[in-house]
Design brief:
Rossmann fold; binds NADP nicotinamide-adenine-dinucleotide phosphate; 7-stranded parallel beta sheet; single chain; 43% helix; globular; oxidoreductase; alpha/beta
């Protein structure tokens, strides 16, 4: 799948990783980028003035909003499911409403947009759906239990989507980043990958036709660890001594 001349819809494009997706898509010759944001008036990225960019109001948890966005972007060839929420909380103390919010956004949001855009992408193929999951899809991090569960669900949804779209001309890639330097993790003090390099590496994976993309050094080495022994990630993320 080429980025050059592609027509791309990015969810959650107004800040964080999403804005870096738009920057790299434009740099790599995308013909048009639909930048989905809940409040387009608040988007202040430098690419807003680029004539190839069209801002689209989109809340991925609202089916009517998703349907309207898919109607506007009837020429799309790539959908990047980037929008996400992270609520902190553990297995015993995490608020149920926080679990629900992360599942609504990170699972059902991806499901809503994927279903709404699938007919368009099939008609316009070759095409691609790119889901931004997380390395926490493979084991939960301490105090991020609901979020990790939502990304595990998104991981399996991506697998099911890939199987159902096989032979349709729509490639499905799922990215599994480790920690990225955006607002999402602003309160957590640890080494983080630059969002620009993560966006660039995810797009490179899409061009290479990769189904699973590990877009930073930490996620790439954690993926090796997981392939050798799935329990090893549980030990690393939950810092258990087992
Ligand atoms: N940061 C990390 O360490 C990290 C690691 C692995 C994976 N990821 C994943 O990478 C993706 C991007 O995250 P980020 O780091 O850029 O986080 P971020 O800085 O918190 O940005 C989140 C983006 O998602 C949008 N969003 C949230 N709920 C939405 C909804 N219901 N409808 C539409 N847009 C919504 C936000 O829009 P508003 O401005 O309207 O809130 C914002 O644009 C997420 O899927 C996240 O889970 C992040």
């Amino acid at each position: 799948m080429q980025i050059n001349n592609a027509i791309v819809f990015v969810t959650g494009a107004g800040r964080g990783l999403g804005t870096h997706f738009v920057t790299h898509l434009l740099k790599q010759g995308a013909a048009k980028v639909y930048a989905g944001a809940r409040d387009t008036a608040r988007v202040s990225a430098e690419w807003v003035a680029d004539e190839r960019v069209q801002l689209v109001t989109l809340d991925v948890t609202d089916p009517a909003s998703v349907a309207a966005a898919a109607e506007v972007a009837a020429d799309a060839t790539i959908l990047i499911n980037n929008a996400g929420t992270l609520s902190f909380g553990g297995a015993l103390d995490g608020a149920i409403e926080d679990y629900r919010l992360d599942l609504e956004t990170n699972l059902f949001g991806v499901l809503n947009t994927s279903r709404a855009f699938a007919p368009t992408l099939i008609a316009n193929g070759p095409a691609a759906i790119v889901n931004v999951a997380s390395i926490l899809a493979f084991a939960p991090a301490r105090n991020m239990t609901g979020y990790s569960i939502s990304k595990a669900a998104a991981h399996e949804f991506g697998q099911a989507l890939r199987a159902e779209l096989q032979g349709s001309g729509v490639q499905v890639s799922v990215a599994y980043p480790a920690q990225i330097d955006t607002e999402m993790l602003s309160g957590v003090d640890m080494d983080k990958a630059s969002p620009s390099s993560v966006a660039e590496r995810i797009l490179a994976g899409v061009v290479a036709g990769e189904r699973d993309i590990y877009p930073d050094d930490a996620s790439a080495s954690l993926a090796v660890l997981y392939a050798e022994n799935p329990w090893s990630l549980e030990r690393v993320f939950l810092r258990t001594g087992e």
